[in-house]
Amino acid sequence: MLIAIDGPAASGKGTLGKRIAGHLGLAHLDTGLLYRAVGAACLAIGKLDDEAASVAAAHALDVSTLDPETLRTGEIGEAASVVAARPEVRAALIDLQRRFAARPEGAVLDGRDIGTVICPDATVKLFVTATPEVRAERRYKELSARDPFASYEAVLADIHKRDARDSNRAAAPLLKADDAVLLDTSALGIEESFAAALAIVERARG
Ligand code: CDP
After folding, report:
1. 12 in a labelled binding site
2. Contact yes or no for 26/108 (Cβ under 8 A)
């Protein structure tokens, strides 16, 4: 059972991916962390504008060292979206994602191009979305727990910017696959989103 979950920033796809994988006993890969790690590596050496440096960082990526805690900042999300627009960076990360997806029991992968590029033959594809305002509110709540200076307006501006960059890039843009089921979580809490996603998965499973 291979489950592909795509959607824009803070749509809840990561939380859903984790919950669904836990429920079904499958491994889960948050592919955003791969691009975040490449972005973070470039920021660390002051070379975010250097395409070759980002391609080298993608080739050198060690999945066992990915630390979600340090990678989930706004600055790294923005850097991830910059490096993710480069076709050679994306190409360097394809094999790793497909190997993960090829586990005999299946897997859950979430990202921007899982249903369209990485796993076009997934058993079930979900495209999770919510309005920019709802997504900004969720991300703001996460951030303000750690940062008393977090601003909702800044988070919303970041979401608009990242949506535009991720959707308009030439390389594997954020796109709903034709055969993906749309799940709009704007009016749904975590439990309701999980129940709705699980119903879609169970239906696809037959
Ligand atoms: O958690 P959030 O939705 O904010 O972002 P993420 O899933 O961690 O992804 C960070 C950035 O990586 C995105 O804005 C995309 O530009 C890029 N990304 C991508 O291009 N393809 C993927 N499969 C996953 C992430």
Report:
1. yes
2. yes
